Amino acid sequence: MRDKKLFRRAWRSEPPVSESERELFGGALRYDYGWAAHEYARLDLKPLAAVRALPRLVGGTLRLARESDGRALLAVGLAEIGQGVAQAGGLLLTNQVLHALFAAGTTTDRLRAALPALIAAGVLAVVNAVLASLSTAATGRLEPKVERLATEKYLRRAAGVELDAIEDGAFRKLLDSAQFGAVAARNMIGACVGALNGVFTIVAAAGVLTVLHPTLLPLLVLIALPRGWGAMHVAQRRYASRMNWIEHERAARLVSNLITSRESAQEVRVHQVGRYLLDRFHDMAETSEAEQTRLADGRALTELLAAALSGAAALLTYAALGVLLVSGRMDIAMAGTAALAVRTGSASLSALITHVNTLHEESLYVRDLDRFTVAADRRAIPAGGTAVPDFPEKITFENVGFRYPDREEPALDGVSLTIAAGSVVALVGANGSGKSTLVKLLAGLHRPQDGRVLWGDTDLAEADRLDVFRHVAVLDQDFQRWPFTLDTNIRIGQPDTPPDPGRVQRAAAYSGADRLGDTLPRGYDTLLAREFRHGSELSGGQWQTVGQARLRYREATLVIADEPTSALDPEAEVESFRRIRALSDEGRTVVLVSHRMAGIQSADVIHVLHRGRLVESGSHEELMDRPDSRYRRMYLLQAEQYGTGT
Ligand SMILES: Nc1ncnc2c1ncn2[C@@H]1O[C@H](COP(=O)(O)OP(=O)(O)OP(=O)(O)O)[C@@H](O)[C@H]1O
Q: Which of 119, 175, 462, 532 makes a 20 to 30 Å CA pair with 590?
């Protein structure tokens, strides 16, 4: 009855998406790459394809291992070859021992005749054990290095791609799936060593069997084949399921993190969101469990079937041995050695198939990493290009158009403007009018699809982008609150410079963050992350003073402040605008994005954006003098709220 249920569960299709997933995320979260990867996994996990792909897989792993630690790799290789030779020698010596034991003569004579071979076999067993431990030690040295190398490869690429790649959903998924690649590369080392060991042992056993009786060789293969098929089948289902459920797992983790995170702590309690999310988590986790159960049932059945077939083949082999023995074509000593060789060989063949299969399964993840590497290289911020002038006399937007990939409407449409060096320029406009997008193009983070952005005479399309970034300091609405010390949070504005407490303190004094340095428990060395012991938390406004100190520390030619004062109290806000504007006195160009009309009225030029178009430009006075200007309307609306009028 139970078995029937198991059978039914094992062969049914994947559980449907949970109701909670629909409710929270608007539908089934599935790995988009899924179809391609799924089909590809099916093709690639066919036994013959797996065997054919073996040399390539091993080659790739060995290259990575050589790059990580060539000496350790050599040690592993030699130790494994040595073990293979020792095992073959061991089998042949066993044959000699058996021959001596089954020969005619007294027991003492037979034992004496068997003794030299017995001693040699013992020595070989010791050699084998020493080589195995050497191999284990070298593999242990190699594995973490390979994982580190692969992780660094992954992170370096991730940090070097264009911003639009990071915002592109398909690329992000590749980024997510490739994260398993480094651990998989590490696992491949162990599997490679295991497979190598298996090959040498089989060669030894097969050699001995061929000498004894060639008929036994195909029977050896017959014992191992069903187990190999079973292992492949299980791996195929596991990989397909993992790829298909990757987003569901991530979403369930996200929901559970939301219950415990500090940011959501208030709403979780006051709005009782905790209970709601917990129920959704339960629902999603149950769906995942159903999928896990389905996989486990399938695996149990497959392995049972494989074991039965393999057992039948083993019976056949021993029957063949019996026939050879009875018909006198093999003596008892040879039959004993053959039985031993069949056992060793079939165990090694099964292990080899499992290792090849592990190699293959892990290689699918390593290939995700390779695919990511290729995609990331294609989308990398190009190196080289024309150097940009340190203080360009102007930055020009010529008829610039930009549209985000998943949007119909352009975020910027035919924008032309000039920003003079050393001036203070403000960008205003309703939410979604394109201010932040314009700023990203200005900083070289996005490239226009139409028109040009020029730094002096240099088109940003041809400029050395890293050089452009060197000249820019950005403080945006969601600036990073690094979970590091106060000192590092300021110094990270220019991370390559050596520590300079004086410079950090000057930057802090500029923004008012020096008060934090004086009052926090460990001064500038206070960790600004509550999740760690001794960590402190800052208020939103205090964080903004840290952000501004970072902006100052960077000492860039072009300073961009996107909503820099939203969390500041009125006094701090006025002071903050004054300070940012004062940066232009040092010859820096300042671009300010803000909804606080009072704060930007002293800008040299104010640009007003509306639905991606530049609709007005001028000084505060000029724009206020135009009776029907959008700027005037926005300004008066805000002024009215304070009852101040113009
Ligand atoms: N990463 C993105 N992917 C897709 N669309 C985006 C992205 N960022 C912005 N947009 C869209 O581009 C348009 C302009 O957005 P942008 O952020 O530049 O406006 P904004 O003027 O800075 O708005 P706000 O005042 O609300 O910050 C909006 O319609 C927005 O939804």
A: 462
Pocket test for ligand 1, best of 172, 437, 477 (most atoms within 8 A of CB): 437
pLDDT score recorded for residue 144: 94
**Domain ranges (residues) in the chain:** 388-471+589-646
Q: DSSP secondary-structure letter at 122?
A: H
Dist. CA 137–CA 88, nearest whole Å: 23
How far apart are alpha carbons 465 and 462 in whole angstroms? Answer: 8
Residue 90 amino acid letter? G
Q: Are strands 424-429 and 589-593 parallel, antiparallel or unpaired?
A: parallel
Q: For residue 12, give both structure tokens.
A: 């049914």
Rg of the chain taking only CA atoms, in angstroms = 35
Helical axes 216-260 vs 47-102, angle rounded to 10°: 130
Secondary structure in 3-state letters for 131-145: HHHHHHHHHHHHHHH
pLDDT in tens, 179-219: 888 999 899 888 888 888 888 888 877 877 787 778 777 87
Ligand 1 site residues (CB inside 6 A) read: 167, 404, 406-407, 411, 429, 431-437
Ligand 1: nearest atom to the Cα of 439: 18
Fold of domain 388-471+589-646: Rossmann fold (3.40.50)
Residue 65 and residue 189 in contact, taking contact as beta carbons nearer than 8 Å: yes
Q: Which of 3-12, 167-176, 365-374, 401-410 has the lowest mean pLDDT?
A: 3-12
User: With pLDDT > 90 as the criterion, what percentage of the chain qualifies?
Assistant: 33
* Best mutation site among 408, 435, 440, 634 for ligand 1 pocket (most ligand atoms within 8 Å of CB): 435
- Of the residues 166, 433, 610, which should be mutated to test ligand 1's pocket, given the most ligand atoms within 8 Å of the CB? 433
Indicate the pairing of strand 458-459 with strand 450-455: antiparallel
407 alpha carbon, distance to own chain's centre: 27
**Token digits of residue 243:** 């790829």
Q: Is the pLDDT of residue 282 over 80?
A: yes
Contacts of 492 (CB under 8 A, 6+ apart): 482, 484, 550
Average pLDDT, the chain: 84
pLDDT (tens digit per residue) in 427-458: 999 999 999 999 999 999 999 999 999 998 89
In contact, 436 and 476? CB cutoff 8 Å: yes
pTM: predicted TM-score of the whole model, two decimal places: 0.76
What is the C-alpha separation between 425 and 475, in angstroms, rounded? 15
pLDDT for 559 equals: 93
Q: What is the dihedral of CA 568, 574, 575, 577, to 10 degrees?
A: 90
CA–CA gap between residue 440 and residue 468 (Å, rounded) = 12
Alpha carbon 333 to chain centroid, angstroms? 57
Instruction: Specify the DSSP class assigned to residue 70.
Output: H
Express each pLDDT in 468-526 by its tens digit: 999 999 988 788 889 899 999 999 998 888 888 889 999 999 888 999 888 998 889 99
Q: Alpha-carbon distance 115 to 96, whole Å? A: 10
Determine the distance separating the centroid of ligand 1 and the alpha carbon of 57, expressed in angstroms: 44
**DSSP letters along 185-231, please?**
HHHHHHHHHHHHHHHHHHHHHHHHHHHH-TTHHHHHHHHHHHHHHHH
| Neighbouring-strand partners of residue 463 | 386
Q: What is the reported pLDDT for 309?
A: 92
Q: Tens of pLDDT along 43-59?
A: 454 556 666 766 776 78
Give the distance (Å) from ligand 1 centre to CA of residue 435: 8
Q: What ipTM score was computed for the predicted complex, to two decimals?
A: 0.97
> Distance, CA 441 to ligand 1 centroid (Å)?
13
